[in-house]
Amino acid sequence: MQNSLFSFIIHFIGGDIIKSNLYFNTGELSIVIKELKCRMIREIKNEFYYGRSRKGARKKFYENLSSLREQVANLIGAYSEEITITDNTTFGLNIVLNGMRFNEGDEIITTSMEHLASISPLINLKNKKGVVISVIVI
């Protein structure tokens, strides 16, 4: 049974399409790069065999999170304390937009190519704060 489970995961997560590109929209619509797939499978196996509360798992999680924050900070020229890791881009965008002080009549400019998950919080701000949403058609 476990072999068929992992075969299923590999089949649907797999794909070798992205070789030398960095693509961030992997949460919903695209394939997962091979390196990430292998890491995910390893973690799933660890949880399957040892459980989520295995000794040292929480400590390792926070070490990995800290390392990730430092790597992202180095990539964009920031301090790790300025980096927040969220569950997904939509969640992060909602944190940022709802944390900003908008006044009635403030303008937010977006494009016609924007993902629906980005448009929804803008519509919410329009309804709650009275901001103006301008769309550049691409």
TrEMBL record:
Gene3D superfamilies in the record: Aspartate Aminotransferase, domain 1 (3.90.1150.10), Type I PLP-dependent aspartate aminotransferase-like (Major domain) (3.40.640.10)
Keyword Transferase: yes
Entry keyword set: Aminotransferase, Transferase
InterPro entries linked: Aminotrans_V_dom, PyrdxlP-dep_Trfase, PyrdxlP-dep_Trfase_major, PyrdxlP-dep_Trfase_small
A Pfam family hit: Aminotran_5
Domain Aminotransferase class V, chain residue ranges per copy: 52-136
Domain of life: Bacteria
A molecular function GO annotation: transaminase activity
Descriptive protein name: Aminotransferase class V
